[in-house]
Amino acid sequence: MDTRVSLQPAYVLHTRPFQNTSLLIDFFTTDYGRLRAIAKGARSAKSKYRSLLQLFQPLLISYSGRGEVKTVASIESSHGAIHLQADRLFSGLYINELLTRLLHFHVEHHELFNNYQEVLVGLQGKLSIELVLRKFELNLLAGLGYAINLESDCCQHEPLDAKCMYKFIPDVGFDPITSPPGQSEALNLFSGTDLIALREFNLENEDTAKSAKRLLRLALNAHLGEKPLNSRKLFVTTS
To answer: Do 154 and 172 contact (CB within 8 A), yes or no?
Structure first.
């Protein structure tokens, strides 16, 4: 059966050339999650879509099609575009790449769509980039069914203790350390103080912010696989 959807709120996640003048586009939509569609003639100089098919531009798209790849019927601007620069632009590209890599097609993520809009507004403002990204990464993992439990450990289910050290096991949780860890385990070790601070979104301390970044990278890498994220290469400094 031919599917026809009208005026679906959406953002462009990724585009690539298709045939002579068209674009193959990955959209993030409010009701259908990640969606792939062909915008015919979108690369033509006369295309009315060229100025609209930009990253971080709120859109209303209409499309149709029987298969997994749809065909764009119309595109309208919903609101003014979000303008990001420097590291905030790189952060937006990073968020888009995460969604492109981790979301399955045609799976609704309404709450995550709202989180995405919030992160774009946060990046456009003066909020800490680290705080904005960590919040979104936690929401993304939760939306995919891999939420990180920052309340209790995964063994005795006791509340996280600021005085304890924990070994992080992706998709399992935090295992309290009762004996000196091996050197190979250092990357997966986190203090209870830092975990509680992340839970409270208090990342003002530089070491705590780095610990939170390391934790979320471990959690996400468990699902991203071995292929590195291209957007991470854009940042001047890494940790």
So the answer is: yes
- Angstrom distance (rounded) from CA 182 to CA 119: 37
In the chain, domain spans: 3-77, 84-239
Which has the closest alpha carbon to 205: 94, 123, 131?
A: 131
CATH of domain 3-77: 2.40.50.140
Residue 122: which region, alpha, beta or left (left: phi > 0; alpha: psi -120 to 50)?
Answer: alpha
Half-sphere exposure of 185 (CA within 13 A, CB side): 15
User: From the CB of residue 9, how many other CB atoms can be counted at a distance below 10 Å?
Assistant: 17
- The topology under which CATH files domain 84-239 is de novo design (two linked rop proteins) (1.20.1440)
E strands present in 40-102: 59-65, 69-77
CA distance readout (Å), 132 to 114, 122, 125, 155, 209: 14, 6, 10, 30, 12
Mean per-residue pLDDT, 124-141: 95
Are 118 and 138 within 8 A, CB to CB? no
Residue 239's pLDDT band (boundaries 50, 70, 90)?
A: very low
73-82, 88-97, 193-202, 226-235: the lowest-pLDDT one: 226-235
Share of the chain above pLDDT 90, in %: 79
Please tell me the pTM assigned to this model: 0.91
